[in-house]
Amino acid sequence: MKMAKTLALCLTLAVLSIFTAGCEQPPDPATVAKVDPLSVAVKDESVSSSSSSTVESQVSFRRNFYFVLDDSSSMAYGVPDGGDQEFNSKMEAAKWAMKEFLKSVPADVNLGLALLNRGEIVALGANNRDQLLKAIDEVEADGGTPLGRGIEAGVEKLIVQYQRQMGYGEFRLIVVTDGESGDDLNWGLSALAKYDYVTPMYTIGFGVAKHALAPHSVSYQTANSASELKKGLEEAASEMPDF
Amino acid sequence: MNRSRHDFDQHQVTSINEESTLKTKSFQRYFGLPLVAAFFALSSLSGAVNAEAKVDYLKPIPLSESPDFKNLKLKPIKQGKIRVPMLKWPGDVATVAAEVDGLFKAEGLDIELYNEDYLPNSCKSMIQGETPIGRGTLGMALLCADAVEKAGGEIVLVFKLTDSVGGDVLVVRGIKNLPDMKGKTFVLQLWGPHAEAITTVAQLGGVKPRDMKLKWVKELTIPAYDTKSGIVDPRSAFLESSDVDGAFVISPDADALTAAEGGAAGSKRLFSTKDADTAIADVYWVRADWFKENPDKVKGFVHALMLGQEHFADLMANKASNPTKFSQLMARSSELLGLSTGEIEASLGDARWAQFVGNVKFFTGQGTLRNFKVMKGEIEKSFIELGLLKSATNLSAANLDYTQLATGLTNADLTVVPKAKFNQEKVQKAVEKKIATEIEDWEEEGSFFSFEVYFPANSEEFDVSAFVEQYDQVIEAQQKLGGAIFVIEGHNGPELLKKAEQENWPAAKIGLIKQVAKTRSGERAEALRQAVIKRFQEKGIDVDQSQFYAVGMGMEHPKIADACLGKEKKCLEQRKQNRRAVFHVKSAASIDTEVE
Fold first, then answer.
1. Global pTM?
2. Which of A89, B4, B209, B239 is most exposed by smallest CB count within 10 Å?
């Protein structure tokens, strides 16, 4: 099922590319030119212009967690190894784990949520717990796994917030996925490298022991059950060792 | 209005061989030079490379001891119109507004405004009964108070017109910061407005008046008369004399001295009244005997001045919708002050009008340390050290009833918090950019003063009560440097980053470490910023928080780059010194700031 969806997406992209100047290639993360995230203009649909100069900002030390949830069709499958019999699917388990996890997140943390196939469904911000919980409930698994573009978009959202906070605070990109990328992962990896990893990525592979994102993540956790997924989320949100 | 030549003969002053009909121009304060002055300016500058040019330095003596004041006795005030002197200073335009709007007449006063920039002339006029009113800076008021006292009278301060907020500049060479002023030589005008400014600000760097070598000249700027190759102004003296380290000048002269072409090599602005925006207070004073006999006239005069400042502020705010009235005011000011309307209009940004609220604060001390009592004490002490006074004067404040004076005013709310001077977002960005891209300039440009606070490992908390003395120094500095920028840098130790780099940790983790360090250092800076602001509030002193900026420097600028990692006392101390916040006071001119 997942393979079929991925193939369909690729075909669609291939057809679309006929009408464009050619398939755009992502920059190489190893050689991408680093830019100062405070000076760059980022794509931000929440403001009227793409210019960073329109982003109103003030110093803030807030923490920010931006979730990128894999809503591909395969998330509708059962939890691997029968880890959580009470959940019919990985998506159901993920929803439970995220909602449980949110109970422990301090109120002064900004939260946001994007789906791989539907984009942002809760904008990064404060005091949006209820909106986030409702949005999680409504997520359905249906589509491919465009992790490269999903991560890139998540990084850009965090960079807008980075600019709003004038470069202070924490900006974590938390990716929950059950499979390898269906598009070119370099879109996302280049975005991380371009801003010199001021938006570090934490990845939880649901039923995936090894994942291509692991070497590029501050931490990579394998989860085979809802409770392990919740634990992985908690570790991704844990405080940095102070110094 | 006549000033005789022998004013300065005793002090070898002068190159004046004839009575100058342009003498009022020669004492113009702050305004640009008229054409004739520009001509002589060029002559004087060519004299700067002329080996025969000689600076006519004066001996610092009290005004009361100048020849014109010897044997001078107080005379009764003449009847008739009340003559009110004004300086060539933008602040006085509001006084003209009071006249134009008929505010003096409404108070039952028959006023005649006139221009007199030269303190010996205006002070002498008071003693001789030509006018009951004097005009100058607070320092000039003290010099006049001394002279009037010697003549058998007293004067009383009645009104604060303005603060200078940009027109006066200390240009230096070879001096990085205020402490560097110690032992250096500066040239400035005798009995002018700058003695109180240089001494007030130097003391923030721990430099007392006697620690500096001050040389005095007759004029504030290049005069309009022919000096016969003699140099009589600070700008020309600075250009001519390599042994002079700085000159206190008006802003057009500062522009000339610091210009790439034709300026003084290696010169820069150390500070200006844009930074030290309470260093020069312009005031009115009256003879005490006249005040005693005419208290209602004094109250009426002050009330008209307050209303005039309000009318002028409204007109400035609505200039576009009332161009005719503005033009009329400029024309009348031009007529009275002998300057072009363009010169006057261009200089209006150099003054901040005190209005009612500024007067109440200045005379009562409410919410400010820059009040009459404190400033009088400071200036008198400095002037005594400099030889400009022999002892403290009997200058007093009028103790007016401000509740009564508030009648009819629209801006009389004393609870209004200070308006933000700076656009915080833009200044924060400018400071961060400057530090990130021009760190050498940032350090080279120096600070007015600074101090450090150390933090425990893994914390942005510190013993707030251990630094009260330093906070009070900051408060004193802020009160004197209301236009400066206060930057608090927070720092982290670089040890974790070093370990990560040595062990080739992934780029993602290194990025995270840097980001957390930047944030932690920012939190340390903010903790110190908050402690200082809280101290202001505890002391009941108004504070404009837009002057204060916390910046996280991360781990990139350790104080001890090779701090050892062991648990020995030495290592612990070295690492502690890296976990610090550094408080800097910077000239706003060194940062691309935007004033609100």
1. 0.79
2. B4
